[in-house]
């Protein structure tokens, strides 16, 4: 066995966008649940409870969308661990092997955990699916949002979507994708905790520091 | 003075002023109507005299009113005014040469009238269509005078200066087009793609919007600007929710929780009762129905979204915020299913966590460096 090394894995934009997305998503889920199922807490007609909740929701949506755009940019500009190719492990033979091995580990079929410095292949494949859900959320959300200003720039850009899906279908998708993402977050946090224990590479602290203590690849 | 102003406006036996005078409508009422029309069309107030002038000078444009798969609700909406309104009289200045519900002629005579218009005034008359057009089985599900609706629509709408589709059925197929759409019903634009069609959806349409459209046509000699669903922007340019009189209650967080509760009696927002105002474009809150008497939300019932394409399929269930999820029972909403999914996920991973802990030390055999970097 070779010596452990301290490897710089997560660059600053990766860490910043990760935590910005965490905060934005928590805000979006909480405000979104209220918007979908509000309770009557207005004291008078001049209160602005729903108004503020929606304002926060829309602001967080912009933050989330910008954060995601930065992360996509960084998947072309950043190091190999943040590269877009890392999110398609099934494209290479090695990736497929590790994907299968990690999957077997998760399902208790064997005890081998392939050694990877960046994202493990099951995680990165899941992030790809999560990314598609993010995209779905952004598109359905902003399409519905754009209808406050018909004929405006955003409505011109996204209005055609309401010809394919009705407004109500877009709302249904927006709710469904949110629940799938809630499921993803539960999975994500658990797996992270599990890997921190099993890999012993300091995965949780690496999300703050950027460094992992691992054998070099 | 009264005599003089009367003389000024009487410039022909057919003129609107004469007809108004005959029916006892004052010049003042007429000017009020013109101001209301300029407001409905979102034109500056200075247009009111121009509208008055245009209506006075108009040369009886011909109009034919076709009815296909409809409940005649739109005709009713137009005809059931409690007293003769200026709007009705304005519509009277149109030469309505064919309208199944109200014409005196019947049978071949009526069809002859229609043929005369279609052949004699090609490209000049206005066609109004009420009801959807069945396309399935060569359109046999709706025939008038031995010809199918689609055949007639192609001829009449194809040769018209413009076609105004009144009501949701004529605009997008409406109720006859609701799943499973047994007759293959479609709106006019889909049945006759080549025709110039203006959609005035609504169930029924708001007669004021039809009057305003015709006034716009008489004033500018063209149809008003439309949105991507072919609806005039002056009437369908904003969401109901954004102009709703109950909107302050929505923003405040004051909702009707149950029919007949305190919030309902106080006129709170109907959002939680499934109101579709947030997904529907129409000017109901400002224009209202039945001579501006009321509209659904004002009377305490949520919007049904009737002016949106395929509303019967997409806006139901009417008393819920979200559509049902296909494949699940009617009692399971998307959010109940979603919550179940989240709880299920948490349970699965909790079990996984316990299993991983019990399983004890893993060998980390992966660190044999059989791997290549995956980036």
Summarize the structure in words.
The complex is a heterodimer of chains A (217) and B (375). Chain A is mostly helical. Chain A has a single domain, classed as Up-down Bundle (Fumarate Reductase Cytochrome B subunit), CATH 1.20.950. Chain A is built from 8 helices and 2 strands, in the order βααααααααβ. Chain A has helices at 12-36, 49-77, 93-106, 121-146, 153-158, 161-164, 167-199, 203-209, and strands spanning 5-8, 211-214. A two-stranded antiparallel sheet of chain A has the order 1-2. In chain A, helix 2 (49-77) packs across helix 4 (121-146). Chain A starts with a strand and ends with a strand. Chain B has 375 residues and is α/β, with parallel strands linked by helices. Chain B folds into 2 domains: 9-234, Rossmann fold; 240-314, Cytochrome-c3 hydrogenase, C-terminal domain (Cytochrome-c3 Hydrogenase, Chain A, domain 2, Irregular). Helix content of chain B is 41%, strand content 9%. Chain B contains 18 helices and 9 strands. In chain B, the strands form 3 sheets. Chain B has a 5-stranded parallel β-sheet with strand order 2-1-3-7-9. In chain B, strands 4-8 form a two-stranded antiparallel ribbon. The longest helix of chain B is centred in the last third of the chain and has 26 residues, at 334-359. The termini of chain B are far apart. Chains A and B meet through helix 2, helix 3 and helix 7 of A and helix 14 and helix 18 of B.
